[in-house]
């Protein structure tokens, strides 16, 4: 290798590997250093090493990505209490937010993941803790990559509601996947049925959502009850009328109204159940399924197979648990909870 090429490679590698101070440069040592830099570049190129810088910044210089999946305006001291207490106990924010660098007069970063951390740090700085700074990890991401990273980070978090995630999925369907539910499910490494339930939740009429005392209590497990009664025009009109009545009564401060999501659902279903029964049209006969054709493998966010739904009949669901497949117990428990919500709604 010519001395000119060596110099170029050394300059390129120095941007990813800090040079050791006081290091001697002997004729034999130079080959080792160059080999180390070559290895470092190869690791970065292969993805074995991730070089994402972290910084402590002023949260006022960060703005929320307009397609962020959390309702920032709905955050409050109560919803962020656990995180605020954790930052106070540790003296700092432990987990960095994921941001993109931007160049605007008022902002330096765009927040992809970490809106709740941003709200908490901002609140602390405004309430006698100006020393607390916002820890961020800077990445170079496309919008579609930003959506998937945000979804993966928040999927296992209980503080992000199903409704917020569902609305985010509905927006992403057209923005990144051309309206293809199949392509979206493939990119998220989830089943189409799983994605479909979230999309159904996001498509609930606004009047129905507003009927709930706390819309963020709505879950994908509730879709199995609500979706069927919104199909026919007659049932839909009854449900919408009752939803508007509940909303107006709650706004007027009336008492004796449903206090939570299950009670609200029962009230909405009651207006359909009280209507005169209609004769159901016979369903067309379905072709029998081949054995194993309805098996679905559920994966972890990292792509590890957790369990397989082998089939279902009148008595129940049969599944195989891949307890030695490399996934964690927490991931398996989350997958089982999703299955219970789907097949055995509360």
From TrEMBL:
Residues 1-30, 276-300 are annotated as: Disordered. GO terms for molecular function: DNA binding. Residues 55-155 form the ParB-like N-terminal domain. CDD domains: RepB_like_N. GO terms for cellular component: chromosome. SMART domains: ParB (SM00470). One of its GO terms (biological process) is chromosome segregation. Pfam families: SoPB_HTH. InterPro entries: Chromosome_partition/occlusion (IPR050336), ParB/RepB/Spo0J (IPR004437), ParB/Sulfiredoxin_sf (IPR036086), ParB_N (IPR003115), RepB_N (IPR037972), SoPB_HTH (IPR040873). Belongs to the ParB family. This is ParB-like partition protein.
């Amino acid at each position: 290798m010519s001395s000119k090429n060596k110099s170029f490679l050394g300059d390129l590698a120095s941007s990813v590997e800090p040079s050791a101070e006081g290091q001697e440069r002997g004729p034999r040592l130079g080959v080792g250093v160059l080999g180390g830099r070559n290895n470092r570049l190869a690791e970065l190129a292969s993805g074995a090493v991730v070089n994402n810088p972290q910084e402590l910044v002023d949260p006022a210089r960060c703005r929320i990505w307009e397609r962020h999946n959390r309702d920032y305006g709905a955050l409050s001291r109560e919803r962020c209490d656990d995180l605020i207490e954790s930052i106070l106990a540790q003296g700092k924010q432990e987990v960095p937010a994921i941001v993109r660098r931007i160049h605007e007069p008022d902002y330096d970063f765009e927040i992809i993941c970490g809106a709740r951390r941003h709200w908490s740090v901002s609140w602390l700085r405004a309430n006698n803790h100006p020393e607390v700074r916002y820890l961020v990890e800077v990445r170079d991401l496309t919008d579609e990559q930003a959506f998937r990273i945000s979804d993966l980070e928040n999927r296992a978090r209980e503080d992000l509601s199903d409704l917020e995630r569902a609305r985010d999925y509905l927006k992403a369907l057209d923005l990144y996947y051309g309206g293809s539910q199949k392509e979206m499910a493939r990119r998220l490494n989830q089943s189409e049925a799983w994605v479909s339930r979230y999309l159904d939740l996001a498509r609930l009429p606004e009047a129905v959502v507003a009927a709930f005392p706390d819309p963020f209590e709505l879950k994908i497990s509730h879709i199995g009850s609500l979706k069927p009664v919104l199909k026919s025009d007659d049932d839909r009109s009854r449900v919408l009328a009752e939803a508007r009545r509940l909303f107006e009564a709650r706004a007027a401060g009336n008492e004796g109204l449903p206090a939570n999501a299950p009670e609200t659902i029962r009230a909405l279903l009651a207006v359909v159940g009280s209507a005169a029964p209609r004769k159901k049209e016979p369903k067309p006969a379905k072709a029998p399924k081949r054995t194993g054709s309805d098996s679905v493998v559920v994966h972890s966010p990292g792509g590890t197979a957790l369990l397989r739904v082998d089939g279902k009949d009148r008595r129940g669901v049969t599944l195989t648990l891949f307890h030695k497949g490399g996934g964690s117990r927490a991931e398996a428990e989350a997958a089982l909870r999703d299955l219970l919500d789907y097949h055995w709604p509360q």
